[in-house]
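Aim 2 progress update. The chain analyzed this quarter is reproduced below.
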Amino acid sequence: MEYNKLETRSIIKILSKGQTKKVRESKINKELKWCHNNYCFSTYSYCKNKKNGKKLSSKEIVKKTHTGNCIGISYGLKEILKKKYGIQSFLVPATIPESFQREGYLEISHVALMIPGNKPWEFFLADPAFYFLKSLAMKPSVVMGESYSTTGKMSNIYNKNEMNVVNFEARTKVLKTDLILNAYQKIEKLTPIVECVEINTGNLYGGLQSSSSEWNYFITEIKNPDKAITSFFQEIWKHTPFITRTQSQKGQVVCRASIHQKEDNRVVIKKYNIPYYDGLVRDLTLKEMNYWKKIFNLKMFKKMDKWQAYLIRGERCYF
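Predicted structure tokens:
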């Protein structure tokens, strides 16, 4: 397994001033929703046809294909905010809930997007790969060493229930000492953290009830996300690549379709998490291939042979 040291850059000075370009939460949420409807989370896109084939970065992949891992999709949102509104933002490293973890993952195996606000120490946190329904608006109390808390909503797209919204609490704090997570990942002291914990509503007493699902965002810029995260993430998933097509509807994000390849090269294709096909890509009829191509609706696959080749290359994924 290839691991590389996480490289970060402090953005405390930027947070302490805020940014001059007008930042509206409504604009961030609008583009976050656009990402849910137009980007596909995919590990297929990191597979090369040949061992010596060109390896594209997550930033290049999302621009070319409208697909990517959490890094690619966060880069996509970052580019939209910059191009349409001139808003500055930064990719920040994060941990993940225990239910998402896999053997071989390091503690930091995820990224999201942090957008500085106009007031000193105010910022917004958007996580398109965790399907945040709205960005988290974090207030400037963190500068005084105080904890600020708010609540957020995201969708568990693999939940088969009619409603898949997950409520969570987010609380800020500042690291007083360096946080050494492992031999490759360290977060420097004085870094703000957003600690998140899943909550359930509607218990017998009408209050909030915590569960064990927890994860953290470190408010520092990650300088080498592909080298520090994609390097091991893709190695773990290269034999079982997957792609999901999501859509915002009725106040949540749903998985309209997904394709998961198994180790024996079979693919399981699901629509709204209900299995529709289990077999080899090459055994799909032309009608079936066209049906799924239209649902995924990716700009790079206007021709059927490219769509089929994209899925077949997952059978021998070089990374």
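The longest strand covers residues 165-174. The radius of gyration is 20 Å. These observations will guide the mutagenesis experiments scheduled for the next reporting period.
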